[in-house]
Amino acid sequence: MNTQFKKGVLDLIVLLVISEEDKYGYQLVSEVSKIVDVNEGTIYPLLKRLTNENYCETYLEQSAEGPARKYYKTTRAGKVYLNILVDEWMEFSQTIDKFIKERHNNDQK
Amino acid sequence: MTRNEFFNELNERLAVLNEMERKDIVDEYVAHIEFRMQDGKTEGQAIEDFGDVDALADEILEAYHIDSSATKNKSIEYYLKVVIGFINQTTEKLLNCQPSDMARIAVEFVMVLFAIFLIGVPFDLFHNAFANIFYAFPSGISQPIISVFGLIIELAQLFLSFLVLYSFIKIRILERASDAPVQRAQRTQRPPKPPRAPKAKGYKKSNNYATAQPPQVVTKENTMENSNIDAALSEEEQTTVEGFTQENTQSFEETTPPVQDVPYHATRRNNGGYSQGQYEDYGNEKPSGGDFVITLVVNVLKFFLFLTVWLPFAFLTIAAIVCTVLAFILIAVKGIGFWGLCLIGLGFCLMGITFVAWLSDIIFGGKKKNA
Lengths: 109, 371
What we know:
The complex is a heterodimer of chains A (about 110) and B (about 375).
Chain A: H1 3-20, E1 23-24, H2 25-35, H3 43-52, E2 56-61, E3 69-74, H4 76-108
Antiparallel strand pairs in A: 1-3, 2-3
Helix pairs in contact in A: 1-2, 1-4
Chain B: H1 3-13, H2 19-38, H3 43-48, H4 53-63, H5 76-96, H6 99-134, H7 139-178, H8 181-189, H9 203-206, H10 208-211, H11 220-236, H12 241-255, H13 289-309, H14 311-334, H15 338-370
């Protein structure tokens, strides 16, 4: 799939994943990479950016096995941003869907 | 690639970030590799999954709004692109500006040339005074000192002249024209952003290029997005706004890296009031060299075509500039002689005529519009 397509929705997917439940880096990355096939290394910079832009925040928590884990959590601004992204995505995908169906059917006739 | 190699390379590429930020990122990758190895992969495989280190570093820097091309080693080619980009930007701006603006710029340009000439006067005086002092010494000593000193003074003068010319172009042509109504409207629309932490070490260095650009503009889409969020936020929690920002400031102080005052997407599309100039981010967009040169040639040709349309002003201005420049060259080579005086006189006459033409355009042009 086109990498630009994926990049566009990655914000949305990441925010959606952590809005349900706080996740630590690896957990989040493996969950996201199940949905879209992306280079896992690139999700960390994205998380960093979301943190910088105040859409999510981090905290450390000790784990039974291994060192402390860094958890990601959406902020209120992040939730609002997520809602906007979801709305925009819905509208966008419906429009494109409709457009493809119309044109594609016309072509096949 | 082993873990050490990977992190060495990554650290090298992220050198602009401060120690803490870099550690933060590296820690995440270390943890990722550990988890991967627990899942049964080898270290090499886990690192390979990250792909190209350069591409990864670019992505990370992008998250900090740092233009990665500025952190790479700068070649002559890079500087050449910056210079050509600057020329392209200037010519495009000139092509797109209003006739009245054109006249203003022409007149101002002539004035700047005059200012540059004036700048030269104290330098020459200083040079002569210095030379006179040293002529008292035997010529074996005085000659080299005077010539070296003369060279230094001339270089300083040249540098200052370029600086004046550069700031003139930057302030009076590029920034003024980019101060379009669209931008002004957006500036007022831009919502207040949450407080940001102080800039980190190294960030400023890499950002030198950003400062040389015209003021960055928030794209419409972004402004909308942000104002939506801010509006929604303020609706939702008008009562807790204070706590909210405070809390954020705190978490920012601890973890925040340098962030520009512009939202993420905006940094790459800071087109000013006009849209054709795809290279106005000179040096930053990394276009191919061939395109650049073609654009330059096309722009210069377009510029001369444009000048022929505005012949009355353009002819006078060009003549004035040519005369003045010739006069300077003549004076520099032969000293102020008969021809030098003639040319300077001609230059000033033409400047005067241009100025009158410009004034009359303002006065009569305005009347025409009113009628």
